[in-house]
Design goal:
Strand order of the largest sheet: 2-3-1-4
Shape: globular
Helix content: 25-40%
Order of helices and strands: EHEEHE
Radius of gyration: 11 Å
Low-confidence stretches: none
Number of domains: 1
Structural class: alpha+beta
Largest sheet: 4 strands, antiparallel
Mean pLDDT: 97
Distance between the termini: 24 Å
Strand content: 35-45%
Amino acid sequence: MVDRTYTMHIGGMTCDGCSGRVSSVLLSTPGIIEAKISHNSNSGVIVAHESFSSREIIKIIQSTGYEANEK
């Protein structure tokens, strides 16, 4: 299986706790391999199995209470 890398804009994060929460939820999702989330740049780089779409990743991020869209 091939992995895909997604770069996302994530709005509303203000601290390390915010980015940690988003990262934790993403990494607890089967198929998400890596999640580097930064509240300083309001962005995230997510590596997932190719079966994931950017829309699915956006929905996961939005479930944590933050806005997201693909860069």
